[in-house]
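To whoever is covering the structure queue this week,

Two jobs came back overnight. Logging them here so there's a record in the thread.

Job A:
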Amino acid sequence: MTFDEFLRKRLFDPLGMVDTTFYPSEAQRARLVTAYAKNKDTGQLEPVPPRPEFGPRDRPPQGNGGLYSTAPDYTRFCQMLLGRGVCAGRRYLSEDAVRELTISRTGTLPTGFFQSEAYGRRGGHYTWGLGTCVLRQPHEGAAEALSAGQRRPPQ
């Protein structure tokens, strides 16, 4: 079984994450929101088409990224993590597995996503090129996600 098949069978399908995949279909790609970036010359926001290499089938699935998902799907995933592996009364990951996912591997070394407490007490936040930010605060039982759909939102 391939990595993407394993995730689909053991995690995505059981969680009801029907739009999470390494290889988005044409129908899924058609539902992507229009992203915007500031034109360096004019200062105006302009549409940015999706990258053509997004989700190529000749690229093997990777554990470090490359998933296409939707807000409802990612919400289910965050609910499962906040439930320490349980979502809607069903266990998907052991508590030990979730604990392993959240252990700091860098000690006091100021690297990675945990350099500042500005986004919560060591919960972790992630930002990507077009303004998507995910903040998990397991100690508070909360997770938030924001997708601005543009590079560098206006000041």
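Job B:
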Amino acid sequence: MIHQENSLNNELFSTGYRLGAYSTENVPQRERIEYWQELIADRLVPLSFRIANSDGLKASLQWTQIGDIQISEIVATPHVATRTTANIRHAGEDFLVVNFLRAGACTVEQNNNNSLISACKNTKHSAFFCDAARPYEISIHEPFSLISMQIPRAKIEHSLSGLNRIVAKEFLSNSTVYPIVTSYIGHLLSMPTTLAPDIGMKLADNFTDLLATSIAEMLNGENAVISDGKVALILRIKAYINDHLHDTELSPQKVSDALNVSTRYINQLLSSDGTSLSRYIWKCRLEKVAKLLQTPSNCKNNISTYAFSCGFNDIAHFSKVFKKHYDMTPTEYRAYYLNRNSANGQ
């Protein structure tokens, strides 16, 4: 059970549009890890935590949602946060988690990238991002403060490819765009509580455009940027797949024939995102079913209806691959999200 506090009284937090404030202060020491793990899973992404010292965990969080971006402002003592395969299976949301470190230092590791990130004295934040669809680990070495933003991958990936090359790497310190990104965050966090939903969505879209531009600078710095033509083709491939998920005959060869591009070349393009054409098709099908099962209004509909609508033609096979991917049966997965949505008042 997550208990909401009235305020955190911490000067590191900015004021502005908030949906919730939470703290371990009134939670018994022996229950704090479980409490924090449940809170972070509910407000950011599911993670596993461990504490390296005997002093226990002291942590607090303020949570905001503007448009479709969720923002968590966190202050905590040292700990290790790990995104495990089990975490990913239990929550299939396809997000990028962008972290802006304001105080302290941490080591972050994902996709064989390993970086030591320290709060920058000359700028407002030092930043890095992780892909929530893959395992990662953040080791926090000292008391810290950070802003963590959960951003739908599609909002960044629509104009970029090869993000896996720069996960767990610090944003360029000499970037011309990054200071604008951090300034914009300050404006987002000072939005009034009366912010209209359509305005919030526009602000969120503007921010993700700025963030995508900053990430593009990082990709340029990697000297391995995919050409605009290749990015456009990758987007065409992904769009075709998502538009035809209902087709039980959808296969790598069918995609190849429709777009007049060899499967070998498509696989080469998708390798920049760490996947293949066949794996991407199955991933999209499973994620679409999972999203339908997460929606409260769909709770009374037959699960097989969603499986068939996403291109599966064998329910036994669907159930098997779904459980393998999410570590839960489709029925268990829907029940999990029904309980979660009910706890959140949705």
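Note for Job B: The mean pLDDT is 82.

Please reply-all if you pick these up so we don't duplicate work.
Q.
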